[in-house]
From TrEMBL:
Catalysis performed (reactions): L-threonyl-[receptor-protein] + ATP = O-phospho-L-threonyl-[receptor-protein] + ADP + H(+); L-seryl-[receptor-protein] + ATP = O-phospho-L-seryl-[receptor-protein] + ADP + H(+)
One Gene Ontology cellular component annotation held by this UniProt entry: BMP receptor complex
Pfam families noted in UniProt: PK_Tyr_Ser-Thr (PF07714), TGF_beta_GS (PF08515)
Upper classification of the organism: Eukaryota, Metazoa, Chordata, Craniata, Vertebrata
Cell location: Membrane
InterPro entries (UniProt xref): GS_dom, Kinase-like_dom_sf, Prot_kinase_dom, Protein_kinase_ATP_BS, Ser-Thr/Tyr_kinase_cat_dom, Ser/Thr_kinase_AS, Snake_toxin-like_sf, TGFB_receptor
Annotated family: Belongs to the protein kinase superfamily. TKL Ser/Thr protein kinase family. TGFB receptor subfamily.
Keyword Transmembrane attached: yes
Record keywords, A-Z: ATP-binding, Glycoprotein, Kinase, Magnesium, Manganese, Membrane, Metal-binding, Nucleotide-binding, Receptor, Serine/threonine-protein kinase, Signal, Transferase, Transmembrane, Transmembrane helix
Descriptive protein name: Serine/threonine-protein kinase receptor
Length: 458
């Protein structure tokens, strides 16, 4: 039974940000933001689909300020005075001296605790809330840092080198207290993705080895402009896409990558109840570029800018308000044909499974069997242009109902043959016929056991 699509909340807000087609929007929180660039001040009003009032309490600077409120159309008259133009006594800004004092007082006390929280050992026994979900996955760092510490961490980071660029913006390797961190700097046109990731990481417990570890989110002023930062763990192997370009895999590594990705996807998809719980989450943009490879050759899933959340108890479906769509090459047939049930959370999970099958295909092609391996290619490389349009993909996937060609050599290996079977069951045109993430995880666990048993007997 699918839940009805529920508006973010019946809280009407004034809205004039670019993605608003009407002069108002509905959300849990209304906001007004003001930005000064090259002497020009722009002000926007809008709404957030999640209650992130804490993030709204960002101290106002000379370049940027944001304020939030929680009543009908409360942001219509709400004003912001950038630093130097307002009076702190009216709540317009936090004085620099007080902000610095808070940072100086709190940070030395918390640094050791924070570092152990942000950079846990990748070794050690599982510490998981539910055996069903995490019996073979250790937990890592997720959300949970106090907001003031998030801001302080961001201000203490030194950017070292740009390690990636894309439509979203740039990723830099930064250094904080001697540790490498990743800093994703969002482009202004992808502002809503930054908001969405910030919302999810700050309101949902996502500590899991196979989900990219979140450290902090901040608006920071650099070079006279406001930048939107998302700070996470740094993994020097880069994305799975990058890793597969340069690395041929053995069967064991292939299985490890595949298993760790599905482990992360299960953690997202399943709702966990209780104080240490989380809503169910569908990713909606799963692809090899949004999966990182850690030093232990386990994967973690990144980029929650398009994620949707669902809670059974309230039967509430939070789809956010991001105008961005997923990556066309990885879109499921029901998305391309525009037949997806957007009021049904299960529909979004099934699109993740389609995409997981494509990622599995990318991994297995780069796995050596009898000395043979293919060069890396993206899914549907032989059927669509390098930057396919929506119509290109729709013709191939919906009209022609093509799926990627599985190399024959995979069937000569029992593990790769089993992975090929899983792929096919991820690619059914009918979403309801596709496997669930939990079923795939259990199948891969059995495969792992079958590989490890002969080793133990040797």
């Amino acid at each position: 039974m699918c839940p009805l699509l529920v508006p973010a909340e019946e809280l009407l807000c004034a809205c004039d940000v670019p993605h608003c087609s009407q002069p108002n929007c509905t959300g849990k929180v209304c906001f007004v933001s003001k930005r000064k660039e090259e002497g020009t001040i722009t002000q926007h009003r809008g709404c957030f689909s999640q209650n992130i009032l804490e993030h709204c309490q960002t101290p106002v600077t000379e370049q940027y300020g944001m304020r939030c409120c929680k009543s009908r159309m409360c942001n219509a008259e709400l004003e912001i005075f950038l630093q130097g133009t307002g009076a702190w006594g009216r709540g317009d800004e936090l004085p620099t001296w007080l902000e610095m004092w808070l940072g100086l007082k709190i940070v030395p006390v918390l640094t050791q605790h924070v570092q152990s929280h942000l950079f846990p050992s990748e070794k050690g026994p599982p510490r998981c809330p539910q055996d069903l979900l995490n019996d073979d996955c250790t937990t890592g760092s997720g959300s949970g840092l106090p907001f003031l510490v998030q801001r302080t961490v961001a201000r203490q980071i030194t950017l070292m080198e740009c390690v990636g660029k894309g439509r979203y913006g740039e990723v830099w390797r930064g250094v904080w207290h001697g540790e490498s961190v990743a800093v994703k700097i969002f482009s202004s046109r992808d502002e809503q993705s930054w908001f969405r990731e910030t919302e999810i990481y700050n309101t949902v417990l996502l500590r899991h080895d196979n989900i990219l570890g979140f450290i902090a989110s901040d608006m920071t002023s650099r070079n006279s402009s406001t930048q939107l930062w998302l700070i996470t763990h740094y993994h020097e192997n880069g994305s799975l896409y990058d890793y597969l370009q340069r690395t041929a895999l053995d069967v064991e590594t292939c299985l490890g990558l595949a298993s760790s990705i599905i482990c992360g996807l299960v953690h997202l998809h399943v709702e966990i109840f209780g104080t240490q719980g989380k809503p169910a989450i569908a990713h909606r943009d799963l692809k090899s570029r949004n999966i990182l490879v850690k030093s232990n050759r386990q994967c973690c899933i990144a980029d929650l800018g398009l994620a949707v959340m669902h809670s059974q108890g309230s039967d509430y479906l939070d789809i956010g308000n991001n105008p961005r769509v997923g990556t066309k090459r990885y879109m499921a047939p029901e998305v391309l044909s525009e037949q997806i049930r957007t009021d049904c959370f299960e529909s979004y999970k099934k699109t993740d499974i389609w995409a997981y099958g494509l990622v599995l295909w990318e991994i297995t092609r780069r796995t050596v069997v009898n000395g043979i391996v293919e060069e890396y290619r993206p899914p549907f490389f032989d059927a669509v242009p390098s930057d396919p349009s929506f119509e290109d993909m729709k013709k191939v996937v919906c009209v022609d109902q093509q799926t990627p060609v599985i190399p024959n050599r995979l069937f000569s290996d029992s593990v790769l043959s089993a992975l090929a079977k899983i792929m096919k069951e991820c690619w059914y045109q009918s979403p309801s016929a596709r496997l669930t993430a939990l079923r795939i995880k259990k199948t891969l666990k059995k495969l792992n056991n079958s590989v490890e048993k002969p080793k133990a007997e040797q």
